């Protein structure tokens, strides 16, 4: 019983350290997508909501499960989609070929 | 553990690995998108696996399954629509909103778990290893939920962005905080049941509101980073309540991300997190003191003169700030920059860590306007370049360029700034001589090499672009 608790606490602490290590290398340019991507990751709470639904038997419980499920699903789906949308915009080169632009602007 | 359970745990572990790798790939814009998709794939697998567990255990009632499915569907559709439709300028409030629902869901898990206990074991018989994380989950989750909602409201302009300090607000805040501690303590010591759990929820919700209301606009990057860390912690606590490893791991990762961002943002403002939480620089806009007293003359310029300066420069650094986002003028700015580049001017962007309303806000706006990310330079990268730059164009940034930060004795002292004043000339686009968030005069504006172009950012940049084109063609 207590062994599993200790194991879980160990996992928690080590994950925190892994998080610090990995995230301190993210450049400032990507801080918004990082935050939104991290947001999407805590959408894993949806797994918790599903597990909660497993043993729910009361009306109050059902209401809580419904609201929690809606919250968690919005979090996880919206989080990943919006992060993807943002990251799609980060490009190493502008989309238009530079020489064409130059010609177009010098002619008039 | 049965073979099935072991298999499930291994799949969850694999999902957790994709979360870590996904965050790791965010160390470069070139791989970040792949990382996010990897993480999303892992998440999908984790959810599907949980579905298999539910079917396998046959533990869900018909009503439970229906309610769960409807809730998930409603949330997924809502989240998808919001994520697809949001304007990049509205990103901070959406991220804050997703943070709120994440924290809310985590708190509801603990509540639901507590209510469920009524069926088979009174809460006061539950072991501390359940009640402690339950109390923490409810408290942190509820604070995050209400706090993030207020923050989102402030960012969207629906709640006043200025620090709101109700009479007795601080007292009420302290009272709610103490009440949360007392109810939490009761819960952990096993003397309370569901009513105490509900009381704790109410107290924590009010802590969240009262904590966020007094915080002013420019401190928002710190606050939403902090709330992000809170959600992560709440989710990890939910993991302890349910004995679910993926929640613990993911929650810890997000907690770490939020904590790092909070520290970076506070450092970039040279303010302690505590002083930020205590609320704004005094009252916000109404200048608190006469500032530093440097009241030199301000040189005003015209669109034509500014365009001439830009067109004949060899190098230009653009310094954007929240004003650019507020005016939604990022496209106009980038069109101007592209014309200059086509003319052979070397253009880059100098971005302060706290420019905007969330960490990295300016980078997202400029990326949306098709600025290639190698041109987006952070503080350390761009500061040595100012001295050899012909023209700096400041658009909507204020306090982060104030040279007064290098001297002690004023509200921005010690804050790392962009060394704009070291460039050969500076053009500042601004609506008026109004103060920034710190409420003091910006000495950059009275510097002899600075000229001020008083205009609204959007039409002003458009006019500037037209004028520049006239010179370069």
The ordered string of helix (H) and strand (E) elements of chain A is HHHHH
Question: What is the CA-based Rg of chain A, rounded?
Answer: 22 Å
Count of alpha and pi helical runs of chain B? 16
Low-confidence stretches of chain A: 97-108
DSSP strand tally of chain A: 0
* Tally of domains of chain B: 3
Question: Descriptors for this entry?
Answer:
heterodimer, A: 108 residues, mainly alpha, disordered C terminus, B: 473 residues, alpha/beta, Rossmann fold, 3 domains, 6-stranded parallel beta sheet, 6 strands, 60% helix, 7% strand, elongated
Please outline what is shown here.
Chain A is mainly alpha-helical. Chain A has five helices and no strands. Residues 97-108 of chain A have low confidence and may be disordered.
Structure write-up:
Chain A has 108 residues and is mainly alpha-helical. Chain A has one domain. Chain A contains five helices and no strands. In chain A, helix 2 packs antiparallel against helix 4. The longest helix of chain A is centred in the C-terminal third of the chain and has 31 residues. Chain A is flat, with a radius of gyration of 22 Å. Chain B is an alpha/beta fold. Chain B folds into three domains: 58 residues; 197 residues, no CATH class; 170 residues, 3-Layer(aba) Sandwich (Rossmann fold). Chain B has 16 helices and six strands. In chain B, strands 3-2-1-4-5-6 form a six-stranded parallel sheet. In chain B, strand 2, helix 14 and strand 3 form a beta-alpha-beta unit. About 3% of the residues of chain B have low confidence. Chains A and B meet through helix 1, helix 2, helix 3, helix 4 and helix 5 of A and helix 1, helix 2, helix 3, helix 4 and helix 8 of B.
